[in-house]
Design a protein that fits this description.
Beta-lactamase, 30% helix, antibiotic resistance, PBP_dimer_sf, alpha+beta, transmembrane helix, Penicillin-binding protein 2a (Domain 2), PCN-bd_Tpept
Length: 722
């Protein structure tokens, strides 16, 4: 028994020893691991993938972002096109737990009153607002008001804040202001916030000039770093570290606001009357290449985004098309310049066979045997084919390359396409002579036309005048006249100018409708077939791209005007008649701008120069308008004018209407008695979608006078002749 006890004791002692050794070894191993881990953390300052040094800094440092001001986009005279702005989102706290620092309710106390007051400033009814303010989830802390509660202007925000409604709050967000509404919108572009609900978010350009010059416009953000305690309170006498922000540069365009605004009105009128699938209007200074006006339809409102879904690109550079008969300007130039032009040679018009394909004139019966000198004036395709054959395919291609057809212009706009020339078959070679089987963009054609206007020297179209650093006021970059080649001789250019004049003056010319009394206009008309997705070309009287390119005046051009219109859906007039509704009044405006007529224009009337009413009181502005024997129209409930149409400096006939937009809620005016042109001004200055029915003067409107029109949808206006 004693033996057993002794054996048991020895085993127990041995077990204790083993356990003790295990514990000792485990402790030593753990200590070694701890030392290694501690050393690793001390040296690497990392724990579980977290940088401890940065984590400590974050805890005891407060970093505030200092947003740089985005640069402005201005017109050639420094008038604002796009500028930095602030918008506001409104929300309401509905939880009764919310209190102010003074212990007062910071939630919506009176839903009926709050809904009634907000309905005056938001495009929502009192009933809709009550529904928002009465959420089904009783535990909900706050509510928003959907799209109608976002993107409020500073004026609306101030008016609501002045009501001192408990529980009503605002979030301030960076934004972009486009005070002219629809104004070369696709060319200028627009911006989007990187985070639509973050007040520290930046905005970036996503189209046009805003996109192309985004880095220059955006500037550089700064930051401010302060030391704080555990509760986030700034420590007294702590050192403040600041990294200065650098505001974005201002970009001045070559656009002339007065011409641009008038162009927009003309474009809108054509868009509503004839509903083309695409419309482009461009005005370029023939001497410098400066684009003074450019617009397209469809377009969109950069403030509201309305229309963006059908107009998401700048068609001036991003779309390519077959130019049609305006290409004959280049064909005639090449024929004359290469020494192959014989104006007195007769040819048989009507149709011609080339490479197994029949090519016809627009008048397929032809005019019999006519001299080549009449081919351009009559816009004869067969005549152009004859010129191309006499030059030879190689010579004609050489001249197209001299005119840079198929090459990008390099204009400062994103997404420019190069176009292309189909030249494999004899029929394609022939068809390029009258603008088919060749694809271009609009700016390319303007550049080519400039050679005819400048004695053979081709000028690059410019949209940028200069870039200015707002911090120093110094111009950092200037864009000047740039000659990009001389495809033809000066004598050739003069001959083509005379040919363009004949298109207007000869009784067989295709451009007689573009004759503007008192102005020596030279033009070339165009009718281009549209390629069918199924092959070949579309058929039907409206399935064309109709165009006109004009020199004003023809013999020493100051301006080049180029208008294209694709597939008008309501072709109630001949296409050249439709285009003349843009071209002719635009030419008159270009010739008369800046002049002060001393003679009566009609019935002894004198032009009235429009004064600047911006930032003036509404009442003073109305009195001034009355003194000038002009009519007025006021949009909004404010006491200060923020926009006007026509713009200051423009000249109008007496009794014309000046439309004013005030800083108050955007309310509907009484349009009774307004002319169609007045209604277009209303649509332009508000950015609203307005549909007109009939002609004459307004007798009915779908939205009642005094109603807030933010988000009101389409406005229908009925007109009748007196």
């Amino acid at each position: 028994m004693s033996k057993f006890r002794k054996l048991f004791k020895n085993k127990a002692r041995r077990n204790h020893y083993i356990v003790g050794m295990v514990i000792l070894i485990a402790t030593a191993f753990s200590f070694i691991l701890f030392i290694q881990r501690f050393a690793y953390i001390s040296m690497s300052k990392q724990y579980d993938g977290v940088n401890l040094e940065q984590r400590t800094k974050q805890k005891y440092e407060n970093v505030d972002k200092v947003n740089a001001k985005r640069g402005d986009i201005l017109d050639v005279n420094g008038d604002m096109i796009a500028g930095d702005s602030t918008i506001y989102n409104i929300y309401a706290i509905v939880s009764k737990k919310s209190k102010t620092m003074a212990g007062k309710p910071d939630y919506v106390v009176d839903r009926e009153k709050t809904a009634r007051i907000l309905s005056k400033y938001l495009p929502l009814s009192a009933k809709q607002l009550r529904q928002y303010l009465s959420p089904k989830n009783k535990k909900q802390y706050q509510v928003e008001f959907g799209p109608s509660g976002r993107g409020l202007s500073i004026e609306i925000k101030r008016k609501i804040a002045a009501q001192k409604l408990p529980g009503i709050h605002f979030v301030e967000l960076p934004s972009r202001s486009y005070p002219n509404g629809v104004f070369a919108t696709n060319l200028v572009g627009f911006t989007q916030a990187n985070n639509a609900n973050d007040q520290n978010s930046n905005i970036s350009g996503v189209m046009g000039i805003e996109k192309y010059f985004n880095k220059i416009l955006a500037g550089r953000d700064g930051k401010k770093i302060t030391k704080v305690d555990n509760s986030g309170n700034e420590l007294p006498d702590s050192q403040v570290i600041e990294k200065s922000s650098a505001d974005g540069s201002n970009v001045y365009l070559t656009l002339n606001s007065k011409i641009q605004q008038y162009t927009e009105i003309l474009a809108q009128n054509i868009d509503e009357k004839y509903e083309p699938k695409d419309l482009q209007i461009l005005v370029m200074n023939a001497k410098t290449g400066a684009i003074e006006a450019a617009t397209q339809r469809p377009t969109f409102n950069p403030t509201t985004g309305k229309g963006l879904d059908t107009s998401w690109r700048d068609t001036l550079v991003e779309d390519q098309f077959e130019p049609g008969s305006v290409m004959k300007i280049l064909t005639l130039s090449a024929s004359i310049d290469s020494g192959n032009y014989n104006p007195d040679e007769l040819y048989k018009s009507g149709t011609v066979e080339v490479g197994g394909r029949t090519i016809g004139d627009w008048n397929t019966a032809g005019w019999g045997y006519i001299p080549l000198s009449e081919a351009f004036t009559r816009s004869s395709n067969v005549g152009m084919v004859k010129l191309e054959e006499q030059m030879g395919a190689k010579t004609w291609m050489k001249y197209m390359k001299r005119f840079r057809i198929g090459d990008k212009t390099g204009i400062e706009l994103p997404g420019e396409v190069a176009g292309n020339i189909s030249y494999e078959h004899l029929s394609d070679q022939a068809m390029t002579s009258f603008g088919q089987s060749v694809n271009v963009n609009t700016i390319q054609m303007l550049q080519a036309f400039s050679a005819i206007a400048n004695g053979g020297k081709m000028i690059k179209p410019q949209i940028i005048k200069k870039v200015v650093n707002p911090n120093t006021g110094k111009t950092t970059k200037t864009y000047k006249r740039e000659v990009v080649g001389q495809p033809i001789k000066a004598s050739t250019a003069k001959a083509v100018q005379k040919a363009m004049r004949k298109v207007v003056t000869e009784n067989y010319g295709t451009g007689m409708v573009y004759n503007v009394p008192g102005v020596k206009v030279g033009v070339k008309t165009g009718t281009a077939q549209i390629a069918s997705p199924a092959g070949g070309y579309l058929t039907g009287s409206n399935n064309y791209i109709f165009s006109v390119a004009g020199m004003i005046p023809y013999n020493d051009p100051n301006y080049i005007v180029y208008v294209t219109m694709k597939q008008p859906q309501k072709m109630t007039e001949a296409p050249e008649r439709i285009l003349s509704e843009v071209f002719n009044p635009l030419v008159k405006r270009l010739v008369n701008q800046g002049k002060s007529p001393t003679k009566a224009t009609e019935a002894g009337s004198q032009y009235v120069s429009i004064p600047s009413l911006l930032d003036k009181s509404t009442n003073d502005s109305l009195a001034r308008i009355k003194d000038l024997d002009l009519q007025s129209g006021v949009i909004g409930t404010g006491n200060k004018v923020v926009q006007q149409l026509p713009a200051s400096g423009e000249k109008v006939m007496p009794d014309q209407r000046i439309v004013l937009l005030t800083n108050g809620a955007m309310t509907m005016p009484d349009l009774t008695g307004w002319s169609k042109n007045d209604v277009l001004k209303f649509a332009e200055i508000t950015g609203k979608q307005v549909t007109t029915k009939g002609d004459g003067y307004v007798v009915k409107q779908s939205v009642k006078s005094g109603h807030v029109i933010n988000g009101s949808g389409k406005i229908i206006v009925t007109l009748k002749n007196k």
